[in-house]
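In response to the reviewer comment on reproducibility (Comment 2.3), we provide here a single inverse folding case reported in full, input and output, so that an independent group could reproduce the run without further information from us. The C-alpha cells appear first.
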C-alpha cells in the first residue's frame, strides 16, 4: 500500500480538524497529535507551531478528507475516534465530521459504529491493557508507513524494533513488580 505525501498531510490535517471541533485542546489531544505527526515524518517545529496556533488558524478547511485508499482511511478514522475520546468528552461535531469522512471514503456505516463502540469499551480497560492496545494501534500505522517505502527490509526492521520495544517494556514491568 502506498502512503503518499498527500495522505500523510491529510492524515495530520484531519486529526487537527477533529482536535479543534470542541474549541479546546486538551493535553491528551496534544500528545496524540505529536505522536502521530512524528510517526508521519513531520518536523517537530512544524507540528509544535501548528498545535500552538490550532484554535486560531482560519486556514484549515473543515471539509471531509478523501484518502487514496480505504486502508489509510480506516486507520485515520480509528485514530480520529481515539483522539476524539482522549479528553473523555465526545462532541457531536467530532463524530459527525468523522462519519462524513468515513462516507467520503466509502467506509461502511456499520464498521464506523463498531469502531466507536470498541473505543468506548477501551475506556474500561486497565492501565496495562490500554498500553498494549495503544501499542498495537501505533504498530499498525508504523507498519503502513514502512509499506509505503516499498522496502521489505525496512518493514522487517520496523517490526523487529517494535517487538524489541514491547519486550523491553514487559521486562521493565516485571522488574518493577519484583522490586516491590
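Designed residues, in position order:
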Amino acid at each position: 500500500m502506498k502512503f503518499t505525501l498527500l495522505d500523510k498531510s491529510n492524515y495530520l490535517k484531519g486529526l487537527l480538524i477533529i482536535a479543534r471541533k470542541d474549541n479546546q485542546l486538551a493535553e491528551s489531544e496534544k500528545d496524540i497529535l505529536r505522536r502521530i505527526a512524528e510517526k508521519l515524518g513531520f518536523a517537530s517545529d512544524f507540528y509544535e507551531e501548528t498545535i500552538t496556533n490550532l484554535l486560531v488558524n482560519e486556514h484549515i478547511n473543515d471539509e471531509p478528507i478523501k484518502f487514496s485508499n480505504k486502508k489509510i482511511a480506516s486507520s485515520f478514522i480509528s485514530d480520529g475516534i481515539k483522539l476524539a475520546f482522549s479528553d473523555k468528552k465526545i462532541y457531536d461535531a467530532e463524530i459527525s465530521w468523522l462519519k462524513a469522512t468515513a462516507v467520503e471514503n466509502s467506509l461502511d456505516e456499520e464498521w464506523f459504529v463498531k469502531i466507536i463502540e470498541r473505543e468506548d469499551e477501551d475506556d474500561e480497560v486497565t492501565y496495562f491493557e490500554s498500553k498494549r492496545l495503544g501499542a498495537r494501534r501505533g504498530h499498525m500505522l508504523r507498519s503502513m508507513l514502512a509499506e509505503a517505502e516499498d522496502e521489505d527490509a525496512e518493514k522487517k526492521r520496523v517490526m523487529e524494533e517494535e517487538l524489541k520495544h514491547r519486550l523491553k517494556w514487559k521486562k521493565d514491568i516485571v522488574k518493577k513488580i519484583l522490586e516491590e
